[in-house]
Amino acid sequence: MTAEPDWLTWTCELQAIAHGYATPKVDVRGAVFDDRNRLLLVRELADSGHWTLPGGWADVNLTAAENVVKEVREESGFDVRVRKLAAVWDRTRQGHANSVFSCCKLFHVCDIVGGAAATGSETSEVGWFPEGEVPDDLSRGRVLPHQLRRMFEHARDPLLPTEFD
């Protein structure tokens, strides 16, 4: 039986097959609010079924906004329009666990323009949560409580500038 390779081995293998300068991966998240100022969260099938903002790795040949629209539709059933880019945060500096890849997380505030709640191939539940009732069992590899608090603030005040670190 072969032992699992460690992170150093993985990193060396990744560098061996990658050409050019190492760049971060891009994760997009949609902070969707309804007319009652509740935040849309989805329960993911991965990561032990924890709650998160709809989103995922950005696909090539789509803009960040197009990726968010696609991810929200696939994971929640809702069609959205991106209102603003609220934050561009480095995953590790925000307090997420380290990983082999560096990652920029792009958080977008979105408005519903159609669709209806429906789970997708990556989600088992769709829910709306007021600010004081966001569940504790978050997928902390994807979103953190302080990030969700900032999304509520951006939804309340559309003139807040885009945050970055």
Q: Overview of this structure, please?
A:
This protein has 165 residues and is of the alpha/beta class. It has a single domain, classed as Nucleoside Triphosphate Pyrophosphohydrolase (Alpha-Beta Complex). Helices cover 22% and strands 33% of the residues. The strands form two sheets. Strands 4-1-6-5-8 form a five-stranded mixed sheet, sandwiched between helices. The mean pLDDT is 91.
For the structure shown, list the relevant keywords.
165 residues, single chain, five-stranded mixed β-sheet, Nucleoside Triphosphate Pyrophosphohydrolase, three-stranded antiparallel β-sheet, alpha/beta, 8 strands, globular
SSE order and pairing:
Elements: H1 7-17, E1 25-33, E2 39-44, E3 51-52, E4 55-57, H2 64-76, E5 78-90, E6 103-115, E7 123-129, H3 145-156, E8 163-164
Parallel strand pairs: 1-6, 5-8
Antiparallel strand pairs: 1-4, 2-3, 2-7, 5-6
